[in-house]
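Dear support,

I submitted the protein below through the web form. The confirmation email said the job was done, but the results page showed an empty box. After a refresh the structure appeared. I'm attaching both so you can tell me whether what I see now is the final result or a partial one.
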Amino acid sequence: MTRIIAGFAGSLTLTVPAKGTRPTSDQVREALFSALEARDAVRGYRVLDLYAGSGALGLEAASRGARVVTLVENGFAASQTCRKNAQAVQKAAPKNSGLTISVSSQAVQSFLAGTPDGFDLVLIDPPYDLPDAELAANLAGLLPLLDPDALVVVERSSRSPNPPGAPVSNSCAARTTATPPSGTPTSPFPPDCRPEEGWSAQVFRPNVWCVDSFVRRIRKVEPVRVAVVCASHYGATRGIAERIAAELALAGLTVRVYDAAEPPHAEDVAGVDAFVIGSAVYMGHWLRDATTFVRRYQPTLLEHPVWLFSSGPLGTPATDAEATDILADTVPAEIIDFDSTVRPVGHRVFFGAIDPGSLSLAHRTIRRFPGAAEKIPAGDFRDWPQVEAWAREIARSLVKPAA
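What the results page shows now:
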């Protein structure tokens, strides 16, 4: 069964053509869109889904806030399926959302040659037997249609060669920027990350990602399944969880983010290789949903590598008036218990964020108390480089060379 994973159409079941298509799995789409949303690369974007099949990739983007989604599918049955699924998602869209979904029933090269539209995000999941030359021609045909900072995502079988002519290698490619419009083009890759031998870093300017099996092939790692479970009151902790998931996914791991209020089923937990669990901190404690998850699955967690994180401190100072390290001093009471019951590999505290406009009446009232606004300052104080660095530490400990 294929379904929309998140957004306004979350859990909506999609129709899949009887044959001739290969829908991207839910786990892969979850990891991919976690990475995309961590880059703020979906909401408000103009999205093009080539070789759309059922339209699952493009419609997932629509559900998560894309402004314009175009599905291109040449097969008659598949294009009809795309239209049916697009109608279902469009019907579920909030009123006045401004979402536009269209389906083009023509060959990819014909579409690229005839459309004047520009796109911010392109999702390409071609058939396994698509000739390399045709894929290269499609990539070249995209160039006039892309914004300078556009992102192109290509899914290929692990048995297929890398997309020709484009600098696709690993997570470093996901952090590149387009070649500057003026001056001598320079390699977009960091010094410690270069395309594979024989590849040009100059041929294809936009960022290019590879996902799922070919990421594992490029990185040469064994599949590792990671569950990132979080309890978030107003969304700031969820944002940290999604950023962690994005980094893990870029390392070639299979990642899924769960809300602790709607945790994975027991059979899903049993299939996970590692866990990252986090919670917002209120009054020195984790939220109940996160604590309940840890205690419910304590026997399973004890047998697997587990990392814990907490989000709570607000403001920019790293130390308080007594020169005490704020992060080191903000350890929730539950962590002491978890240290012995689940033996986590590590625990990290991150600065949080607060938007006064999103607070409940009770919390808005608390901020009006004398001196409360200074102790609970508004703003986003999350240190993203720190979060990403910690996630990469986790990834390095989990990535296993392929046999």
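Response: this is the final, complete result; the empty box was a page-load delay. The chain is about 35% helix and 20% strand.
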